[in-house]
Write a structure and sequence with these properties.
about 240 residues; mainly alpha; 10 helices
């Protein structure tokens, strides 16, 4: 256990030092994305009632986490593969889970400022009073970790060019065709059925229901689905990382 913790601490420090010039820029970009979702999508609604405002306010931090975990993180891995850093990672005599935990910690922490600022901006913009659940922190962590796990699973399993393409498709789907900033009943039946198997709507639901608890309480289903996606992503990533070149 001591070796694992020491490896985790050293890897976390090394990752922060290697990306120290990029991290502040990423925080700014994520904040702009979150606030941009709130403002930009509000122009599409003829009237902003409380339900619409709630979807936009909770959808914005969800989009931030999706972009961070399923777009920025896999693109970083794709860059590591091109530069040879990926193979260097795999050759390190450290626990593979410590390596994954260090990377995930950086991406999750990096998303926090954008999430908080986007949520605060949305609450101010729409004058929302939210009923926050104590499960809000576990929900946000689960969404962020599931996003990073899926993103890393894709990036580690695919070639860099394929990873870049998939990450661009993820952004397109999450912003335009996923029930994140609007309810699922607005989608065609076939697309709504597809999203029952994808993580996007469950990410949004977990965030929305813990930030403003519905009358029936917080659903268990989103937590279970996201846990399954996270475990699957981590399993794929760990299997590839544990394989010696």
């Amino acid at each position: 256990m001591r070796h694992w913790l020491r490896s985790y601490g050293l890897l976390l420090r090394w990752t922060l030092l290697r990306q120290r010039m990029l991290l502040p820029l990423m925080v700014v970009v994520q904040t702009l994305i979150g606030c941009g979702v709130v403002v930009g999508f509000s122009f599409l609604a003829p009237e902003i009632d409380r339900a619409t405002a709630l979807y936009l306010a909770t959808g914005a931090p969800t989009v931030v986490m999706i972009v961070m975990g399923m777009v920025a993180a896999p693109q970083e891995v794709a860059g590591q593969k091109r530069q040879g850093i990926f193979d260097y990672y795999r050759a390190m005599p450290v626990p593979r889970l410590a390596m994954l935990a260090a990377d995930a910690t950086v991406w999750v922490v990096l998303a926090i400022p954008g999430i908080l600022l986007a949520l605060a901006f949305a609450a101010w913009r729409f004058d929302l009073d939210l009923t926050v659940s104590p499960l809000v922190v576990p929900a946000f962590l689960l969404v962020a970790v599931a996003g990073v796990a899926v993103g890393y699973g894709i990036a580690y399993a695919c070639r860099p060019q394929v990873t870049q393409l998939i990450s661009q498709v993820v952004v397109f789907i999450a912003l335009m065709f996923a029930p994140v900033n609007f309810p699922a009943d607005r989608l065609p039946d076939w697309l709504a059925t597809v999203h029952e198997w994808l993580p996007f709507q469950y990410m949004a639901q977990a965030v929305r229901e813990t930030l403003d608890v519905p009358a029936g309480g917080v659903s268990v289903l989103p937590f279970a689905v996201l846990a399954a996606w996270g475990i699957a992503g981590l399993a794929v990533t760990y299997r590839i990382m544990a394989r010696r070149a």
